[in-house]
Amino acid sequence: MKIRLIKNIIIAVTSIFLFSSCLNDLDTMPLDDNRLVAEDVYSTAEGYEGVLAKCYGSLIMTGQIGPDGNKDVPNIDEGYSGFTRALFYLQECPTDEIALHAGSSHGTLDILYLNWDASTKVVSYPYYRLYMAINYCNELLRETTESKLKDRGVYDKLKDEYEYYRAEARFIRAYCYSMICDLYGSGPFVDETMETGTIPQQKTRREIYDFVVAEAEAAAADMKAPGTNVYARVDQVAGWFLLSRIYLNSEAWVGDGQYDKAYQYAKKVIDSGKYPLASDYRHIFLADNNTCSEIIWPLVQDEVHSPGHAGTNFLVKALVNGVMSKYYATGIGGRGWGNARVKTQLVDMFDISDQTFDIADTWGDKKKDKRAQFFTIDHTKETWVEGKAFQKDFDNGYACIKWRNVMKDGTDPDATYTSIDYPMFRTADAYLMAAEAILRGGGGSKNEALGYVNEVRDRAYLSGKYGNASSGRIADNQLTLDFILDERARELHTELVRRTDLIRFNKFTEGYNWDWKGSDGNAGNYIGKNVNNKYKLYPIPQDEFTVNPYLTQNPDYK
């Protein structure tokens, strides 16, 4: 089913997009055999499945025919435009987790230093991807009404499935708008009811938030029951997870604490029992993770059918450089780029005995916390060199080897591209969200929260029901919100949530600093400092103001 979904993405229709930077016409003739006009797509039940697949695939793939060619987003480097890669730049690189520099023209140093503006190119990449995915979902919703299906003679074949297609599209769209709310605050609003060619009006952050909540609630009610959908398509558990995340961030986004609902939905995810924690943390990030029980919403990726320079291919190659393949199986041989390194603050969240790489223990079996996956040979722990400005250097800062394009049995494909599915939502995050919501007054008991955290730590240490290793459990007096923030970094680093977490804990712009934060990159200026609170939001890309007169820029970016 994984390969079937990918193939459906490849034949999927290109969508009408209402922004000049991504304008396509659904009814134009195809540019090649992979692009189909509307009448071809909607003449068969399989065509509708292809459009649904494109809604999913828009968040992991970059175009119609692989890594180079027929890219979805024009005027942007195709690899940089991939959603998860673009989101990595904005969610991981301005935080205490990752130091990255890639392509000066893209503005990655501005992200590292927390000194971006509305013209910083990389700030715009998730924006365009999100709105493209939103419009794919809008397109499916327009074309899957009962009357249209009957008119086209496909209703009988789709009558048992098309409502689920619609619910899943609404879920994906709700997720995308939640990220608009998170990253940019406000933005243009477009749904399936709008007439093609209409310039969309801007909605406030509160209006977008309210839409997201309503859509996510409706989609969660209408999706398939837990565990009954095919692999890589979401069910109700994904809807509950999304709602928990939205409600957990409600106070940070719109000043309205909804921790009781965050707790309730996280608990529903856990209590469903359909996505239990994987038996080994390391299995979640391997090339055969499609067999992993914990992943609630995977974005599928395959070396043969969906190669690309974004997705997990980027995560492996950016965090690994070629020489490292001499010491352990990377799954990509010596093809790593090595332009992303781990900041000292993340490393120091682990016990010092777990921080270094052992050539005789490349999987870290002897470590207490199996999440401490760093490569340290010939690397400095520091991301800087005394007396020098910030420099792109493979040896400054430890590498992160959490993502490996190998199988659980150790098989190394030595592939050009990865086959690791991206775990968008997974159950361990629900455990930590539930614990945090409890501590923030959302219900439950502290003992319950402690149990959730210790379940995650048991798995990390392979103790308790996960193995016979020494326990990593904490005591009641150690469980604080600050501990949960650090535990989220240990468990979820490089999984596209860190900036959001730091903002929710009021530690992103001030009160907690890390390597290069607020720096100018000059020699000796690697120690972080507080920055302007405007950086809690990204600006709406400057180019959008040339085509949409209804937009207002975020405060202090004008």
Summarize the structure.
The protein has 558 residues and is mainly α.
Protein architecture, described:
The protein contains 20 helices and 8 strands. The protein has helices at 2-10, 38-41, 45-57, 78-81, 83-91, 108-113, 121-143, 146-151, 155-158, 162-183, 205-222, 236-248, 250-254, 259-272, 311-319, 344-347, 427-439, 446-461, 481-492, 498-504, and strands at 98-100, 187-188, 202-203, 295-299, 340-342, 374-375, 399-400, 422-426. The strands form 4 sheets. Strands 1-5 form a two-stranded antiparallel ribbon. The protein is globular and about 65 Å long. Helices cover 38% and strands 4% of the residues. By secondary structure, the protein is mainly alpha-helical. Mean pLDDT is 91; it is low at 6-36. Helix 5 packs across helix 7, helix 10 (162-183) runs antiparallel to helix 11 and helix 11 runs antiparallel to helix 12 (236-248). The protein has 3 domains: 1-222 and 512-550, Serine Threonine Protein Phosphatase 5, Tetratricopeptide repeat (Alpha Horseshoe), CATH 1.25.40; 237-300 and 421-508, Tetratricopeptide repeat domain (Serine Threonine Protein Phosphatase 5, Tetratricopeptide repeat); 309-413, no CATH class.
